[in-house]
Design brief:
This protein has 409 residues and is α/β, with parallel strands linked by helices. The chain contains 13 helices and twelve strands.
Length: 409
């Protein structure tokens, strides 16, 4: 695995600091949490890839040795010879060559059988549960990432604490009470309108150079906000010019988004979370070709991001997390597709993971009305990401105490 030189003592300090924070649990002083988050700024970035529509986990991480799999899917079952071997029990879909290569390098992990109690098969409601950690009978005011941003005091960062890349509605997971999260389609779109005009630049200089004078808090706020906006805009704009990828990113939608993420990371932004989405996983009919293309887009783009950052000496800084709102039913339908199911795998890429298959795969013979029974609560996975990666207690962000899984090394 790639390791950045000269960081051992710093990482030991961060590890001990994070342990102290987590020990306090939900009662940890906000100052301590903020200090840990600030100390880890250069080391810890989370990239979330939302696979919207309900990814078919059984044809992503294939249970090649289970006869119940082929029996339930006479047309859709993938043979062992057509998978990329993980072990003698499971194989990756052949389109996931990028993930298979990461696994060989020790930089890829699958958390099996992830879900939650009383699963909801509605795309919108299930995704809202994943985003908010709350069911629809509760008041949803913010998302789990938004609550992390608030708790860690990331409203004080000079740069956006989180960024959503995409033209769709901002994911509710990023909803925060105190931290404003921008949604951008491209680096060019984030550029401040009119900032190339001489009159604009002169006005900014005059505004930000004016003495605050007395107790004029409003003027001080405007000056500070304007300076921050200009500085961030210029850095994000220049990132696209300076950054040179070490290998070509896929020209797919997700590939372009993750190349932008790499540029922003290289620009030195203090942003902690990048969030991207890929649609199309609602494969009710003619699944094989569509699913193969979707998995290839995800695997190629995410593996390119990790390998590129490793080559730039940034590999230890980034964890990529891929999730979907639910899996598919075990049995195929009459349209060579699969219908809405329940549990499914979460996919992780990064240099500081426990690689391979984590957790138990759900039984294909002990089903709940034709669906897999989950064995890992998604909030236990989030807890590992929050505590062991982002260095912050998880209970406030998850609105409850969940035993974290052993994911991060």
């Amino acid at each position: 695995m790639q390791r950045s030189p000269g960081r051992a003592s710093r990482r030991e300090f961060l590890s001990s600091s994070a342990t102290a924070v987590v020990t306090f649990g939900a009662t940890a002083p906000s100052l301590l949490c903020r200090a840990a988050a600030a100390a880890a700024d250069e080391d810890r970035i989370l990239v979330v890839v939302e696979m919207a529509g309900g990814n078919d986990g059984l044809n992503t991480v294939v249970p090649i040795a289970d006869p119940a799999y082929a029996k339930a899917r006479p047309k859709l079952a993938i043979s062992a010879s057509d998978t990329l071997a993980v072990d003698d029990q499971f194989g990756l879909h052949s389109s996931l060559r990028g993930f298979a290569d990461l696994l060989q390098d020790g930089n890829f992990a699958v958390v099996q059988g992830v879900g939650y109690d009383n699963p909801n098969r509605s795309h919108f409601e299930s995704m809202d549960i994943w985003h908010s950690c709350l069911r629809k009978d509760a008041t949803r005011q913010d998302g789990w990432i938004g609550r992390y941003l608030d708790q860690a005091g990331l409203d004080a960062l000079a740069d956006p604490a989180a960024i959503h890349l995409g033209s769709e509605k901002q994911p509710f997971a990023l909803m925060s009470r105190d931290v404003r999260v921008p949604s951008i389609q491209s680096l060019e779109q984030f550029r401040l309108s009119g900032s190339d005009r001489p009159q604009f630049k002169q006005a900014v200089r005059e505004l930000t150079g004016t003495s605050r004078g007395g107790d004029n808090n409003l003027l001080g706020f405007v000056q500070s906000s304007t300076r921050t906006a200009i500085a961030t805009s210029e850095r994000m704009e220049s990132a696209g010019i300076r950054y040179q990828p070490t290998l070509p990113y896929p020209t797919t939608g997700l590939g372009k988004k993750l190349e932008t993420v790499a540029k922003l990371i290289a620009s030195g932004l203090q942003t902690k979370v990048y969030y991207v989405r890929i649609d199309g996983f609602d494969t009710h009919a003619s699944q094989p070709a569509a699913h193969a293309a979707l998995l290839r887009e995800v695997g190629d783009a995410v593996s390119c991001l990790i390998n590129d950052l490793v080559a730039h000496g940034q590999g230890d800084r980034v964890l990529a997390m891929c999730f979907s709102e639910f899996g598919r039913r075990v049995a195929e339908n009459a349209s060579e597709g699969t219908d809405h199911g329940t549990a499914g795998p979460m996919l992780f890429a990064g240099t500081r993971l426990r690689p391979g298959l984590l957790g138990e795969h759900p039984s294909l013979s002990d089903l709940d009305q034709g669906d897999l029974k989950y064995n890992t609560d998604f909030r236990s996975v989030y807890a590992a990401v929050l505590q062991d990666w982002l260095r912050c207690p998880s209970s406030a962000a998850l609105l409850g105490d969940y035993q974290k899984i052993d994911l991060i090394t």
